[in-house]
Please model this.
Amino acid sequence: MAFSVTILGNASAKPTIASHPSAQVVNLNEQYYLVDAGEGVQQQLIRRGINPLRLRAVFISHLHGDHCFGIFPLISTLGLYGKRTPLTIYAPAPFGEILNNHLRYFDTELPYEIKWVEVRTTEHTLLVQNNTLEVWSIPLRHRVPTAGFLFREKQPPLNVDKWQITRHNLTISEITAAKRGEDIIRDTGERIANSDITYIPYRARSYAYLSDTNYSAKAAELVKGVDLLYHETTYASAESRTAKSRGHSSTTDAAKVALRAEAKRLIIGHFSSRYKDLNMLLNECRELFSESYIAEEGATFTIEEERVKAATK
Amino acid sequence: MAFSVTILGNASAKPTIASHPSAQVVNLNEQYYLVDAGEGVQQQLIRRGINPLRLRAVFISHLHGDHCFGIFPLISTLGLYGKRTPLTIYAPAPFGEILNNHLRYFDTELPYEIKWVEVRTTEHTLLVQNNTLEVWSIPLRHRVPTAGFLFREKQPPLNVDKWQITRHNLTISEITAAKRGEDIIRDTGERIANSDITYIPYRARSYAYLSDTNYSAKAAELVKGVDLLYHETTYASAESRTAKSRGHSSTTDAAKVALRAEAKRLIIGHFSSRYKDLNMLLNECRELFSESYIAEEGATFTIEEERVKAATK
Model:
């Protein structure tokens, strides 16, 4: 099952020729979620081959323009595309007011419904839950109310090992029971332990988006064990003081969060336009956390399935 | 003196990978004016080497998103750039309300002032007047209140021909009088006719922006004799009925306006995303009006100075 993150924008507030403000798409098994929506996001979606009609929901971390100005043109265009299914936007207050103004002035005849769900930025809350996914808010420390998002795959159901099916000559009903996690008890009194014949097909995977924020040990704890961590690095290590005063992070801050969270990989982005050489920022992260990568626009970071336990003995 | 128009966007409402929604910059002698501001305009300005801080004013034709969604990120970024001088935005009502909402939610601490001047879209009004330029509104026929804009260079002051200065041995005060348009009358009774020694250095030039609109004979009359005419061609000639029903123009409509206005050149744009081959649209225009050109993104159309009359005999 695919689990990936595609970077649509990696710039901070001042635009440059080559880079776009914050926006990403999380794809879990063809469920597409937009995370932040900087200006130009609709064009960036098309450029990366992602049909905007396929977006299931949008998550806005905070109401600074470089994280949300692109949602309004996207809302309008989805109307032109004839979208019929509702679109849910998770965003901090007062996004509802802003959205209502947008609809009143620009989209009075939208053919689909938009639902706003308030993200309370001081709380670690379950925002979305379905068969395969949970999305949680992560309180962040920025100049305005801001939340990160944790995409956590649900533990996939148990599989029964083919070799064990043959070995024990399991019936369909025994296999079904095993998949539910039950031991097999036969009329003969024979007992087959569930753990001997089943395995978790792959470990539940997770992705965390933490932008914009100062260093936050609390956020690191909330995303503990995350497979892929996006953490903003607006500034180089030498500008740590500037980063702190502006509610942002340096490369060192991001690497420290990755270490504390025991993340497997770190993606860095939201770069200040002052940095022409992003490798310098990357190298600063890698000194502390070797599995660091630049959130290059257009790059897709895939979290591979990883079998946790094979029952075969 | 430079007089040019740079195309920043030529698409209509649905964005494509390659094209941006409506936006142009008019440059008259290093006075820069933004005409419409579709999404991404700030990045398009930078891409074309135009410093957004140099914009003297913005003209918004109407309040459809593909003509104005880019103004809000631009307003924010100009604040980040530390702009201090006021920015005037000419736009139809209720742009003032929309602007106030933007400022309240996103730009409470802007370091410069924004002035909104209402464009009454049913009137042909002088909006801007300075030493070198007039900008007039042109009522258009769209689904919502819409105005085009006519940029008209002021007639440059008379020059005195160098050869005539030598020939008549003109004094400084005689030259000054001649530049004011006066005849020279000497103590000897000698009279030198102004028209014999002066010339208009070049004909006053003009540019008209007509988008979005149905065919309008009235608009054509109001821009009569224009050097460069931008007219929307959302649709091909075969889609004239669709064009008409949606408040847009076909290639034929645009060419007819150019003919009626006796324009020297026609630029076409605001293309529906359905047309992959813009040359087809161009050829349709050229059948009626040979001096037709595609508003290619990044193209600059220069209106050259043209000496009207040389006095030298």
